[in-house]
Each structure stands twice: as structure tokens, then as C-alpha cells.
UniProtKB/TrEMBL annotation:
It catalyses: S-ubiquitinyl-[E2 ubiquitin-conjugating enzyme]-L-cysteine + [acceptor protein]-L-lysine = [E2 ubiquitin-conjugating enzyme]-L-cysteine + N(6)-ubiquitinyl-[acceptor protein]-L-lysine. GO terms for biological process: protein ubiquitination; proteolysis involved in protein catabolic process. Its main location: cytoplasm. It comes from Ursus maritimus (Polar bear). PROSITE patterns: B302_SPRY, ZF_RING_2. Component of the KPC complex composed of RNF123/KPC1 and UBAC1/KPC2. Interacts with UBAC1 and CDKN1B via its N-terminal domain. Interacts with RIGI (via N-terminus) and IFIH1 (via N-terminus). Residues 1254-1292 form the RING-type domain. It comes from the Eukaryota. It holds the Pfam family TPR_RNF123. It is found in: Cytoplasm. GO terms for molecular function: ubiquitin protein ligase activity; zinc ion binding. CDD domains: RING-HC_RNF123, SPRY_RNF123. Its EC number is 2.3.2.27. This is E3 ubiquitin-protein ligase RNF123.
């Protein structure tokens, strides 16, 4: 007779038993007595005592099902009525009411328990309410923004401005503002942070309402709640845009249950009891072993248990899992029973023992449960682990996080489970990136940081060039002791965090394993597909909060990924000596154009991918042996996106067209091309991978490969790694690239994804985290100011002393808190190891750009983010990791600076780069680079050819390109050499606090004489370089200063109106920008005149005289506008409007003075004479403006000494800290020279009739006649006009030539002809 258990169906085997004891040896079933003892040991009831053991009923596999039914029987009469519990109304399964109980726009998860705000202030309530008794529910805080969580009645009406707590009969707790709300608001509770759990408790027997944060009661929030007929309270929340939470009404075990309070949703008590009993039976199986030889049971440790194929054990487990499997699909039971059991295993034993038990458990799950059952179980298991890890409180040893990560590792070490989770759960169902995040504690007391770091200390403000601005030797003995104690505490914290980080890296190493391809695809290739999709969601879904991974998670994920990647990279190098170390890593350029890797819609350096494939298809064919299928090009056009089907002729022709150039037979059409799910639009949007339509044989160098796009999900391992006939990701190797691959192709794609991750959000988050350090600096400065005031305050002013002492205490407590938070941030984000990761990523980008540059025109295929990551990672290393770590300490620092300098110098004007944003980024990066001595010296170290090319690009005419940044670069190369141009901050701003003293514009002058020399050589070498450059500078100066004058006129008029109209802050900013541009353009002119004076003073050069006259004209205009008594400029400067701080007399007047001194004092005698005559000949020249520079109201009489300056007036003599004695002497010499020359010119000048004046400017006499039309003007006007136009002023005829004209010669010619 077959047992009842024999009819059960198992995943792998069915075991049939016989009652014949004589066949025990053949079947493997032990004898009856031992079997009875074994089954009673496994399936014993808690009430069975040793005294009753003798009278117990014998057990075998025939009566075991009946025994199990009795064992698992639960008194569940009340189970049917659980949904109608007294005091509660609504469905027994409590979820969010997404059909009618909401206001505003909200995004609700599929389980109806998670919600994300998608409008100003949306509100939603649950489907169940309570009117009697004590109830609670939990809210898992996913973001720490503005939210109000609590209870409301059904009569409450909310809108986009008023939410829970803003109306009568609604009550809320707001941990963002640390307040409670019920129409009015008062302080309450503590601040919450992402990862906290808020418990909302309501006692309708006493009419009170309270809240808890992470299990710690915040006290009673509200009393005397309205109760009675019609009063029932719903759980509810109001949350602002992009804020997110998850509710637990009881569908999962409460993390912080409270005695006397019930969850809104009752737990499955009967199933829970059954599951716990079955778990006990299962644990008994693992701890008991049969010894058929001795006929006894042997107690063993569960970590030593092995499944040896004994039918008795197998059938016993089959009976257990027959009843256990359905229960393990329920989320509550998985978290309450299975996770607790596995966590106990991990906590009790060593990692090896825990791994052994977990592996055995998972093997049994896959063996005895149906696939859909074990898959549901694993899904719920990982989701529970993720929630437990994410919402566990921070404790000093991070013990909770460590245990959950170890359990996750143990599960993922199981190959079959890992592949299922990777394929279906980790990236699809849940945000597995959370496993790589270590949340930062908002409340350092609860995290135990006071015990870890008992002594606090805060660093001084650091400079951008390295360590603290003051030497460590300057600190006192007390400060040194505090600093060392603080550093020891930071080291203790760092060691504990490193334990968690190492476990996170182990998880990624498991996911990147490519040796587990037995019977399926290796984990690494599944990971690559999911990782690329993850990147695509975050790249194309910017602003779409449900899709985006939070940037703080991205930062941690990137560092763990780099660690795992470098581990496998160097492991491959160890077994393949011809490969490269990870220190030499880069992305080969062919990956960017062969289409094997999907870059979604991210911009390339040369523009859109479809455009590049059309314009550079010949280069792809000649340099990379790649042909883009014409149908692929056609599919990429915007017109074809609207077509539902391909034209019939094209479809018919495709098999014939898909030919390898060296082959003879048409290639078979891949099956994926016929897929109805892969339409043309999909191929356009996903230009990811290229399916090689190549014959399965090696390609000769002359053969060209025709390619088509293939979505990332359809790639195989061969598409990535390649084979003996296929280079995989490295298809289309240009001749400049080595034949030997760097490493496994799959690791190259992981590296490419890591670079993209940094571009998407990591850099932005690194900048945000610096805010903690900035807060420390601000509070430290406030504390020092308060202590100084305490020392200066008279002892008799006890009231002031009390206030100052109170402020001192507040600042000290705040600094203690912030310094401990800063220690956490430094350990998790800005540690030395994290700095080395970013430095490695920077060097990867530099090598990638260098290799891509060698491919010529194909460089345009490189995604823009490689250049932006190179720029931004350098900025992060320089600005974010100080003062604890300095970039100067990194290996190869000088070489890296030089390589980055070479890239910036070459590509800021590279015509292959067309994107406006990336070109601006390159220009700004170069402008910032030349502001710091270390990086400027790096620019000087690049090859001379590249330096000269850079300077040549800087000297190109300013028209038709962004010239302001170019001009800024030239100014920085000159700053420190010009007249009075050695200042860091303007004199009138010294008493004000700069917004950020580390800004590039506030760095000390560091001129480059080497680059100045290159500039001089270039301006001398060609006849057209200097005139075109100076003409463009003068044009921009004329525009910038004119705009500035026009704007300050409007500002002055607005300030004088009686109605007190406020000037737009944007207008003030534009006005100040125009002024700064005018000053910088004047400084560039000063540099040009100083380095190459002959281009203005040597009139044998073309356009020299005209340029000198234009320069004199502009200088006189600037002087007259700025130096006039009580003029417009004076009045606006006196107003000191916010936004116009930089507008002052000093910067613009010293720039003009520097040009005049160079022309009139330093030049040769002939040049000085020409400059003087041109300056005096300009009708706008006023000697009074020159006298203004030295504080003189009027020009001195000839032969008299200069009077003493009036200290109330502007005078260069007042700025002795900025202008040297020699420079002042040169100004006095210039003034004396101009005074004498102007007197002589006035005595020698003859009156000019109006008829003889130029009809254009009415300032100079007519001196030129145009041919062939014969119209006349002065030489200055016509020469300036001919720089930009060849048409006559008057008749628009084309001017062929310009001849000198003198009135006397013309009159004599007229008389002789009449005779």
C-alpha cells in the first residue's frame, strides 16, 4: 500500500515507499523504530513531554500527514471575523485609497503602500478608518523633505495649499520643520531623515494622539480628540513635490510595535503559527542526523548538515515543504519567519558556517518548491532585506547593516538564486542600489558618534591649492591635542564604515562574476544588460523622480563599482600578462562609433549620432572598415519616425544589400530584424549595439563590415566579448589602437557605465555634500567673532555678557554636532580611498580623450560626458576633498595636471566639437585653470607647439565666437604685470566679506611670461594677426563701455524718481558685467601695447596709425565719462547698489593709465611723439581728465610744480599699497609731458573752417579722397570703415583706393585748369 505522501509531486523526484521493513536496505528507509524516533524528534509538539513519550503513537510516512494536520491545527474561529474587528471600519487589507481618497497629483506604487508627491502639496488617506481602541501604523521615510503625516476624518477637505493638520479634525507631525499641526502649529518632536520610521499612534479610548521616531516616543502630540457618532480617523499624509514614503499598516511585521496598540491590518496569525511550527520542524531536520548502522539519532550543528540523498530525510523534507511552500510566498511570513531564521544563522555563526547553512536552505527551496513558489519567495526575501537594511537605525558599530549585508551576500553566493534575482528582481522590482548606500545620520547622538568621537575639532578654511592656508605649526598645544583626539575618533569611525563598504563590494563582485556560465548566461552579462537599462532610465528620465536613482545612492554605488571593477581588471591581468593593469585603463575609441554600446540620446562631441553617421561614413569606412547600412541611415531620419512600416522595395532589397565587401554570398537576415517589437523608431531611439552581419570567418584588413543597430537586451556574450572571428565591443579598431585588448570587453562596458554615472548625478551630489564643511566654517567664524566680543566687552555690561555667553554656547554645541557629522561625511564621501577612485576615473577619461583624439575626425563620435567628467572630476578633487586630503599628494599629480592642460589647450577651440555647452565648459575650465599657480605651470609644461596653437586660438578675432571667456584667459595671463594690477580684491571691497574666497577670480596674481612671449611672437609674425585681433578688441570695448554707460543712465534715472522704483537685480548684474568686461578688455590692450608696442607705433605696418587713433579715441571717451566732476559715473558709484560692488573708479582708471604710460613714457622717442600727437589730435582729449588721475582739479600752469592732491578726491597717490612709487612717478612724468605738448599744440594750431572738417566725425580735417567716386573724409574715419565695409559712406559705390587730399594742392590744380 502506497503512503499518502507518495502521491505528492515534487520538483525533481517522487519517492514511493513500501511498508515492508525487509526492504529497508534496498530503499534506504530506516527501520520502524528509528523512523518513529526520527519523525517524533522532527515533528514533536511543544506540549509533548518526556513522560508522554512512552505512550505516543508510532509515526511513519503513512500516518505522518495526519499527524502534521494535527500539529498545524490552529484555533482560527476568529480568523474569519478579523476584518470586522471592533473599532475599525473598512477592508481587512489596508492600502492607500487611490480611487477617491486623495487630493492633488500623486504617484502610488503597485502595492498601494508607497506614494510619491507629484504636485505642490498632495494628500492621500487609507481605505480603513478607526473609531475606537488603540491603533498604530508606520511610515518609512524615503526622503526628508516637507511632509505632514497623521490622521484625518472623512469630512476634512484638502487642497494644494492645505493638507493634513491644516484643517479641523486632522492632526499631523512634520519632521522636516519639527512641528505638529492642527490648524495652528507648535514645536514638537525631532527632525527626521531619509531612512527613519515614524510610528503614528492614536488612542481613541483616552482621546490622545502621539508619534514615535525609530521606536522612541516623541510624547503626546494632541489631546481631547473629537470622538463620538460619525467620528472616525483615517491614516493620511500630505507631501510636497518629489517627496516619497512607504506605509506599513500591518501587511509586514511592524518594526517598532507598541504594547497595547494594534496595527490597522491584522497579521495572519494562524499562518504565522503554522509557519513558525514548520520552521521548527525544518530546523530540527538540520540539527539531527540518522545513523542507520548504530540505529540512533545524532545531534549535529546545523552548519555541518549535508543533504546526502537519504530517502528518509528527503521524504521528511518533502512533507514539510508541501505545507511550507505556500506560506513562504506571503510577504508577512517571509519577513517574520524566513528572514528572522536566516538572520539568526548569520549572527550566530562564522561567515563560512552561515554561508553553508544558507546554501543548503536555498538548495532545498529550489528542490522541493515549484519554480514560481521559490521565485516569489526569493523576491519577497530580497525586498524584505532591502527594507530592513535601508530603514535600520545607525548604531555605532553598524551591526544591523552588517548582518543584513552578510545575509544578502550569502543568498547571492547561491548561483541559481543569484541569476534569478539579477534577471528579475534586483534592477526590475526594487532599487538594489540601496544596498550600496550608507545613510548619513542626521542625529549624531542616536548614531553613537559622541562615544566614537568624544572630542570635536574643526579645520580652518582651506585654499583651493592644497592644505590649510595657515601652517599646522601655528596651532596651539591645546588645538593640537584636540585635533589628534578628533582624528583618532575619525579613524575608529572609518574602520567601522570600511567593514560595510567591503561587504558592499563583495555583493558587486558576485554580480560581476563571469565564470558561472554553467547551464546559462554568466551573471556579469545579465548585470550588464540591467546596468545599461538602469543608466538609460537615469539619463533619459532626468526630472522624473520615480525613475531616477537618488544621487546620494549613486555616489556610493560608483565607488563600490570601481572597487569591484578594478579587482576583476587586475585579476584578468594576472592571468593574461599582455593585458593592461587597471592603472592604465581607458575606453578604446571604436566603442563610441561601432554602435556596440548604447549611449541613448546623449550628445556626442560632433553632434547627433545620426548626423555623424551620415557625414563621417566615408571616414568610418576608410579608418575603421565599417559601413553603416543605408537603411540604418534612412531609419535615423526624423521623417521616417512617422512611418509605421518600411517601404516594400526597401524590405525586399535588404537581404541583397547586407553584404560584406569581401564576400560573395548574401548574408542571412538575422531573425531579430523580423521582430514586430523592434520597429524603426525603436532602432532610432536605441542606437546601442550593432549586430555584425559578417561571415563566420576572419576578416582581412581590406574587408569592411556592414552594421545595424541591436538593442542591448538582445546582445549575447559573443556580441560583447567577441570570438576568434569577431572582436565584439572592439569592432572597427582604428590603426592608431594596439591590437592587444586591454582587458575583457565586458569590463570596458562597466567602466564606460561608471564614467556615465559620474556625469549623471555623482558630481552634483559631491558638491552638495561640501555644504557640511561650509557650515562648519561659518559657525567656526561666528564662534571666533563671539569670543572676540566677549574679550572686548566691559565687565559692567552683564546683560551683553549674558547674551554673548548664550550665543557662544549655541555655536559651540552646533559645532560639536557638525564636526561629528563632518567626520561621517569625510569617512563615507571624502576619504582618501574615495579621492583615489575619482583620481583614477579622471585619468581614465584623460587617456580615453587622448586615444580618441588620435583617430582624427572619428573623435567626434565620443560622448560629451567624457570631456565633462574629466573637467568636473578634476574640479571635485581640487575643491571638495580639502583640507584633510590634498590633490598634490596623489601619485602622478604633476603629470596628470599637464595632460589635462594639454587637453583643455587643444580642444577648447577644436572644430570637431560642436556642442555649445561643452565648448563653454572647456573654455571655462581653461579660464579657471590659468588662475592657479600649479595648473598654470602645467599649461606651461605642455609641448611648445600646443602652447603656441592655444595662444593662436586665443588671439583669433572676437567676432562670431564667445569672446568674454577668451578675454578672461588673456587677462589672467597678464594679471600681476600691469599698472597697479597686483591686487587680489579691489581696494574698496577689502572691508566686505567675499561670497567665496576660493573663487578663481579671487586668487593671487600668477602671470605667465612664457605665454606672454608666445603672444608677442604671434602678433609680430603676420601682417594680419595683430590688426584683426586689435580691431576686434576695440570693437568689443566700444560696445561694452557704451552698454555700461547706457545702463547706468537708466539706473540713475530710476534712483532719482520720487516713487522709489527698485532697479531689477538682473539689470544691475548685467551692468556690472559690462563694466568688468570693459576693464578686462582695457587690460588686454595694455598687455598688447606692452608686449608689442610697434603694432601701434610703427606706422610702416598696415593699419597701425588707424588702430592707434581708434585706441586714443576710446581712451579719451572712457576718461571723460569717468573723470567728469559730479557726473553720472560718480553718482552711481556713490549709491553703492547691491550688485554693482565692482563698479568703481580705481579698476578702470588704472587700466587706462597703464596704456597711456606705456605709450607716452616707455616707448621710443619717435613712438612717443606719434602717440602724443594722435592723443592730442583727438577732439575728445581733455587734459583735465589726466590731472584727475592725481587728484588735481585743473592742469598746472607751465613751469609750476604739481600741487598737493586733495584727499577727498580720487587720486592714484592714495593707493600706495597697490601702486608703486615708480609707477606714480611715471604718471607725473606723463602728465608733465602732456601738459607741455598740449600747450605747444595749442600755440601751433590754425583755425579750421567748417567746410574743411570731415563730414563724418566733424573732429578732424579732411585728409582722404575715395576713388573712383571722389567723396572725402578724414583718414581715421575711412580706415576704420574699411576694416568692416568696402562701400562708400555716401553713394555706396565700391571703394577701389584711398588717396591723400590736401586743400592747397586741390585749389592750385583747379586754378591752372581754368587758365
Amino acid at each position: 500500500m502506497a503512503s499518502k505522501g507518495s502521491s505528492m509531486s515534487f520538483s525533481h523526484k517522487s519517492y514511493r515507499l513500501t511498508s515492508d521493513a525487509e526492504k529497508s536496505r534496498v530503499t534506504g528507509i530506516v527501520h520502524e523504530k528509528l523512523l518513529n524516533d526520527y519523525l517524533h524528534r522532527i515533528f514533536s509538539s511543544p506540549e509533548h513531554t518526556p513522560a508522554a513519550a512512552a505512550s505516543r503513537k508510532p509515526l511513519n510516512f503513512q500516518n505522518l500527514p495526519e499527524h502534521l494536520d494535527q500539529l498545524l491545527h490552529v484555533e482560527d474561529e476568529d480568523e474569519e471575523s478579523q476584518g470586522q474587528a471592533e473599532g475599525r471600519l473598512g477592508p481587512s487589507t489596508v492600502v492607500l485609497d487611490h480611487t477617491g481618497g486623495f487630493e492633488g497629483l500623486l504617484l502610488v506604487d503597485d502595492d498601494l503602500l508607497g506614494v510619491i508627491g507629484h504636485s505642490n502639496f498632495g494628500t492621500i488617506r487609507s481605505t480603513t478608518c478607526v473609531y475606537k481602541g488603540k491603533w498604530l501604523y508606520e511610515v518609512l521615510i524615503s526622503s526628508q523633505g516637507l511632509m505632514q503625516i497623521g490622521w484625518c476624518t472623512i469630512s476634512c477637505r484638502f487642497n494644494q495649499e492645505e493638507g493634513v493638520g491644516d484643517t479641523h479634525n486632522s492632526y499631523a507631525y512634520d519632521g522636516n520643520r519639527v512641528r505638529k499641526w492642527n490648524v495652528t502649529t507648535t514645536n514638537y518632536g525631532k527632525a527626521w531623515a531619509a531612512g527613519d520610521i515614524v510610528s503614528c499612534l492614536i488612542d481613541l479610548d483616552d482621546g490622545t494622539l502621539s508619534f514615535s521616531l525609530n521606536g522612541v516616543s516623541l510624547g503626546t502630540a494632541f489631546e481631547n480628540l473629537s470622538r463620538g457618532l460619525g467620528m472616525a480617523y483615517f491614516p493620511a499624509i500630505s507631501l510636497s513635490f518629489k517627496e516619497s514614503v512607504a506605509f506599513n499598516f500591518g501587511s509586514r511585521p511592524l518594526r517598532y510595535p507598541v504594547a497595547g496598540y494594534r496595527p490597522l491590518q491584522d497579521p495572519p496569525r494562524a499562518d504565522l503559527v503554522r509557519a513558525q511550527k514548520l520552521l521548527g520542524c525544518f530546523r530540527a531536520v538540520l540539527s539531527v542526523e540518522l545513523d542507520p548502522v548504530e540505529g540512533r539519532l545524532v545531534e549535529k550543528d546545523s552548519s555541518e548538515w549535508q543533504l546526502q540523498g537519504q530517502p528518509t530525510v528527503l521524504l521528511t523534507l518533502a512533507h514539510i515543504f508541501h505545507r511550507f511552500a505556500p506560506l513562504l510566498r506571503k510577504v508577512y511570513l517571509v519577513e517574520a519567519v524566513l528572514v528572522s531564521f536566516l538572520r539568526g544563522v548569520v549572527e550566530a555563526g562564522t561567515p563560512t558556517q552561515a554561508q553553508s547553512v544558507v546554501r543548503q536552505v536555498l538548495d532545498l527551496l529550489w528542490l522541493f518548491m515549484e519554480d514560481y513558489e521559490v521565485q516569489d519567495c526569493l523576491k519577497q526575501l530580497m525586498m524584505s532585506l532591502l527594507r530592513l537594511y535601508r530603514f535600520s537605525p545607525i548604531v555605532p558599530d553598524l551591526g544591523l547593516q552588517t548582518h543584513y549585508l552578510r545575509l544578502t551576500i550569502a543568498i547571492l553566493r547561491h548561483e541559481k538564486s543569484r541569476k534569478f534575482l539579477l534577471s528579475n528582481v534586483l534592477f526590475d522590482v526594487l532599487r538594489s542600489v540601496v544596498f550600496f548606500y550608507i545613510k548619513s545620520p542626521l542625529r549624531v547622538e542616536e548614531a553613537g558618534l559622541q562615544e566614537l568621537i568624544p572630542t570635536t575639532w574643526w579645520p580652518r578654511r582651506s585654499s583651493r591649492e592644497g592644505k590649510d592656508s595657515k601652517d599646522v605649526k601655528d596651532e596651539t598645544a591645546e588645538e593640537r591635542v584636540r585635533r589628534r583626539a578628533y582624528e583618532r575618533g575619525c579613524q575608529r569611525l572609518k574602520k567601522r564604515i570600511e567593514v560595510v563598504e567591503e561587504l558592499q563590494v563583495q555583493i558587486l563582485k558576485l554580480l560581476l562574476n563571469n565564470k558561472d556560465d554553467n547551464g546559462g548566461e554568466a551573471s556579469r552579462y545579465i548585470f550588464l544588460t540591467k546596468f545599461r537599462k538602469f543608466l538609460q532610465e537615469n539619463a533619459s528620465g532626468r526630472g522624473n523622480m520615480p525613475v531616477l536613482c537618488p544621487p546620494e545612492y549613486m555616489v556610493c554605488f560608483l565607488h563600490r563599482l570601481i572597487s569591484a571593477l578594478r579587482y576583476y581588471w587586475d585579476e584578468y591581468k594576472a592571468s593574461n600578462p599582455r593585458a593592461s593593469f587597471s592603472e592604465e585603463a581607458y575606453i578604446p575609441p571604436q566603442i563610441f562609433y561601432n554602435g556596440k554600446v548604447d549611449y541613448f540620446d546623449l550628445q556626442r562631441l560632433g553632434g547627433l549620432l545620426s548626423h555623424l553617421r551620415k557625414t563621417l561614413k566615408d571616414d568610418l569606412a576608410s579608418k575603421a572598415n565599417i559601413l553603416i547600412d543605408p537603411l540604418e541611415l534612412q531609419a535615423a531620419t526624423m521623417d521616417d519616425l512617422d512611418e509605421d512600416e518600411e517601404p516594400a522595395p526597401a524590405a525586399a532589397q535588404r537581404p541583397t544589400q547586407a553584404l560584406a565587401m569581401g564576400g560573395v554570398l548574401p548574408l542571412p537576415r538575422p531573425s531579430w530584424l523580423s521582430s514586430p517589437t523592434l520597429g524603426r523608431a525603436n532602432r532610432f531611439l536605441s542606437t546601442a549595439a550593432v549586430s555584425l552581419m559578417t561571415p563566420r570567418r576572419p576578416l582581412s584588413t581590406s574587408e569592411k563590415v556592414k552594421v545595424r543597430t541591436l538593442s542591448a537586451e538582445q546582445r549575447t556574450r559573443e556580441d560583447i566579448e567577441g570570438s576568434h572571428w569577431n572582436e565584439g565591443l572592439l569592432l572597427g579598431r582604428p590603426p592608431e589602437e594596439p591590437e592587444q585588448p586591454l582587458t575583457e570587453n565586458s569590463l570596458l562596458e562597466v567602466l564606460d557605465g561608471a564614467v556615465m554615472m559620474y556625469s549623471l548625478s555623482v558630481h552634483q551630489q559631491l558638491g552638495k555634500m561640501v555644504g557640511v564643511s561650509d557650515d562648519v566654517n561659518e559657525y567656526a567664524m561666528a564662534l571666533r567673532d563671539t569670543e572676540d566680543k566677549l574679550r572686548r566687552c566691559p565687565k559692567r555690561r552683564k546683560d551683553i555678557l549674558a547674551e554673548l555667553t548664550k550665543s557662544q554656547k549655541v555655536f559651540s554645541e552646533k559645532l560639536d554636532h557638525l564636526s561629528r557629522r563632518l567626520a561621517w561625511v569625510h569617512a563615507t564621501v571624502y576619504s582618501q580611498e574615495k579621492m583615489l577612485d575619482l583620481y583614477w576615473l579622471l585619468r581614465v577619461c584623460l587617456r580615453t580623450i587622448e586615444h580618441g583624439d588620435r583617430t582624427g575626425s572619428l573623435f567626434a563620435f565620443m560622448p560629451e560626458f567624457y570631456v565633462s567628467v574629466a573637467i568636473n572630476s578634476y574640479s571635485a578633487l581640487k575643491n571638495y576633498f580639502g583640507p584633510v586630503h590634498s590633490m598634490e599628494e596623489l601619485p602622478g599629480y604633476e603629470e596628470t595636471l599637464t595632460r589635462l592642460a594639454a587637453i583643455l589647450a587643444k580642444h577648447f577651440a577644436d572644430t570637431r566639437i560642436v556642442g555649445t555647452d561643452i565648448r563653454d565648459s572647456l573654455m571655462q575650465a581653461l579660464a579657471s585653470y590659468v588662475c592657479y599657480p600649479h595648473s598654470l605651470r602645467a599649461v606651461e609644461r605642455i609641448p611648445e607647439e600646443q602652447r603656441v596653437a592655444m595662444v593662436r586660438s586665443l588671439l583669433a578675432p572676437y567676432e562670431q565666437r564667445p569672446w568674454a571667456q577668451t578675454n578672461w584667459i588673456l587677462v589672467r595671463l597678464w594679471r600681476g604685470c600691469g599698472f597697479g594690477y597686483r591686487y587680489t580684491r579691489l581696494p574698496h571691497l577689502l572691508k566686505t566679506k567675499p561670497e567665496d574666497a576660493n573663487l578663481p577670480s579671487l586668487q593671487k596674481p600668477c602671470p605667465s611670461t612664457l605665454l606672454q612671449q608666445h603672444m608677442a611672437e604671434l602678433l609680430r609674425e603676420g601682417p594680419d594677426v595683430a590688426p584683426s585681433f586689435l580691431n576686434s578688441v576695440l570693437n568689443q570695448l566700444n560696445w561694452a563701455f557704451s552698454e555700461f554707460i547706457g545702463m547706468i543712465q537708466e539706473i540713475q534715472q530710476a534712483a532719482e524718481r520720487l516713487e522709489r522704483n527698485f532697479v531689477d537685480s538682473r539689470q544691475l548684474k548685467v551692468c556690472a558685467t559690462c563694466f568688468d568686461l570693459s576693464v578686462s578688455l582695457l587690460r588686454v590692450l595694455e598687455m598688447t601695447v606692452t608686449l608689442v608696442p610697434e603694432i601701434l607705433l610703427d606706422w610702416t605696418r598696415p593699419a597701425s596709425e588707424m588702430l592707434l587713433r581708434r585706441l586714443a579715441q576710446l581712451l579719451n571717451q572712457v576718461l571723460n565719462r569717468v573723470t567728469a566732476e559730479r557726473n553720472l559715473f560718480d553718482r552711481v558709484v556713490t549709491l553703492r547698489l547691491p550688485g554693482l560692488e565692482s563698479v568703481d573708479h580705481y579698476p578702470i582708471l588704472v587700466a587706462v593709465t597703464g596704456i597711456l604710460v606705456r605709450l607716452l613714457v616707455h616707448g621710443p622717442a619717435s613712438g612717443t611723439e606719434r602717440a602724443t600727437s594722435v592723443l592730442l589730435a583727438d577732439p575728445c582729449f581733455q587734459l583735465r581728465s589726466i590731472c584727475y588721475l592725481l587728484g588735481q582739479p585743473e592742469p598746472p600752469a607751465p613751469g609750476t610744480a604739481l600741487p598737493a592732491p586733495d584727499r577727498k578726491r580720487f587720486s592714484l597717490q592714495s593707493y600706495t599699497d597697490y601702486i608703486s612709487t615708480e609707477e606714480l612717478a611715471q604718471v607725473e612724468q606723463m602728465l608733465a609731458h602732456l601738459t607741455s605738448a598740449s600747450a605747444q599744440a595749442a600755440a601751433a594750431s590754425l583755425p579750421t573752417s567748417e567746410e574743411d572738417l570731415c563730414p563724418i566725425c566733424y573732429a578732424h580735417p579732411i585728409s582722404a579722397v575715395f576713388q573712383p567716386c571722389g567723396h572725402k573724409s578724414c583718414k581715421a574715419c575711412i580706415n576704420q570703415h574699411l576694416m568692416n565695409n568696402k562701400d562708400c559712406f555716401f553713394c555706396k559705390a565700391t571703394i577701389v583706393s584711398v588717396e591723400d587730399w590736401e586743400k592747397a594742392a586741390s585749389a592750385s590744380t583747379t586754378t591752372s585748369s581754368a587758365a
